[in-house]
Amino acid sequence: MTLKTEAELAEAIVAANGPLRIQGGGTRDIGAPVDGAILSTAGLSGITLYEPGALTLVARAGTPLAKVEALLASEGQRLAFEPGDMRPLLGTKGASTIGGVIATNASGPRRIQVGAARDFCLGVRFVDGQGQVLKNGGRVMKNVTGYDLVKLMTGSWGTLGVLTEVSLKVLAIPETEATLICDDAKAKTAVASMAAALGSPFDVTGAALMNGRTMIRVEGLAQSVEYRAKALQAGVLKGFDIINGDASAALWTDLRDVKPFASQGGAVWRISVKPSDGPTLVRELSGFAHDAIYDWGGGLIWLRVPDEGDAGAQMIRKELSHIGGHATLVRASAGTRAAVPVFHPDPAPVATLTQGLRAKFDPRGILNHGLMGA
Question: Is residue 159 a contact partner of residue 358, using CB atoms and an 8 Å limit?
């Protein structure tokens, strides 16, 4: 069911006599398989406000992400949190929507410098599981209600309500960028190099290990980028080469979209840990083949494993119970996703809080029921 207005959406939710599968563009098919009638927000499309001088954009949830990015680019601006295109990795079709980006808190390599999608979301409108239209935030970062609904909805995966409109802070596109690169397949030394670069005064906006290459990104005015890249090269990143402009940008697009794993089979995990613990975690995962990509200075690990049994879930989460962190099963067969908790199980106090929130916003339990677990 595709709806074109917020009122129609509210009516559809009120009239629902069974579970609903909430969908934007259908490009981020992550989570346990959900039964129910598809409720699409793709018809809720359009940019309702854009003030480049105020760095503010308001768009209906079904607006294609590509349309938002094209409009921003025409004014020399962008979504600084760098949301990825998951279609190649997940094998999905359609067009990613801005509502889907916010609902999943989709955030790319630049998160280590600017923050996540939720840090740029100023306001939301949504319809809860009772068909009530709620709003929070606005064009400034100030909330006056008991709940910070902006933070709750960003990353809720459609389980608390269906987004109808989002208000975002945007930033200017830098004049240029450069990436310092060094071949180094050893994760421990790569993470050490990333930590040194991130600890420098040179405003690094990306630090990753992909395809056996350590990559460090700087962005900004051309003269500043040249100075900072050379200073890093002469200091903490001796032996690194410098790649500029479009060639640099292509590397980070590939990383953002996890392109190395897109053409390879298997299950893919997204693991968040303390950067210094990443190499140890991966090294301890014996017993099955695996490939790793490190982002966020080593704090984010994309891990590809065979899609067999529990896809390594028990072993991965056992190791994380010792060192801290969480793991999400981003790609796997429907059977594996139905059998394995896709999202990391919450500690008991957090699980109780989560259940309370769902009971408050979706008392009938009809919105993406089971997608994030019980």
Answer: yes
